[in-house]
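User: I'm putting together notes for a lab meeting next week and I want to include a structural view of one of the chains we've been expressing. I don't have a solved structure, so I'd like a prediction I can at least talk through. The sequence is below, exactly as it appears in our construct file.
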Amino acid sequence: MLRVEVREEGQPALPAVDIDDASFVIGSGPGARIRLPAGHALAEHARITGTRWRTAEGEGDIGDGVTLEVGSYRVRVAPAPAGAAPSPPQRTESLARELMRSLLGDGAAPALELLHGPGAPSRRTLPPPESTLVIGRGDEANWIIIDEDLSRVHAEIRRGWDGTRIVDRGSKNGTKLDGTRITDAPLHDGATIELGNIVFRFHDPADRRLRPPTAPAAPALAPAHRTSKASFYAALAIGLAALAGLAWVLSA
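Assistant: Thanks for the context. Below is the predicted structure for the 252-residue chain, given as structure tokens.
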């Protein structure tokens, strides 16, 4: 198993990721296991296979550890400590979002927008990773909304290094995510959250930027094509009528 640490030049390293894949990619493409912002890395900037690394510039053994320079990032790959467990896929997804946030700068932090309920419309930026935003109508909450639909401590938004999650705290009216009642679920950009009759929208610019583009809908048939079809059928009808007339004359 290998441990990967990513550090932006001049910044502290982000939490490490432990990977037990036999082969994985470091780059900006959607298939990269360690995904870096486009413009700093190629889609497949480096490939790690077994105990070797390979880039367009060269290849070599990882040995006790090697640091790859990828744009303004330094990626260190080394054997993981004994007893380390593989990081879940959510951890590498979260790493990509945090790197994108540093690239986007101010305003890139995830946020919660109150769409319906007392105090709407309003918006709160989520605290840094490993922090929790508690929503409810009691003093225990740090986003207090005075509404009888809310429990005193209704739900928590937990922003961690493995992503952002919403957790219901045993509320009387429940918590819904995109219309489905949940107790604990990950959040993605654009998600709708309902706490009783209180409605929020979750925003995450980094998550939005990293999503693959949606395939465009198939274009409607152009008017010129419709006109060509209509002309073809009209000409066919005229031709058939002419043949029928000729047959009638010959048979007379």
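A couple of points you could mention at the meeting. Helices lie at 89-104, 205-210, 223-251. Residues 215-228 have pLDDT under 50 and may be disordered.

User: Perfect, that's what I needed.
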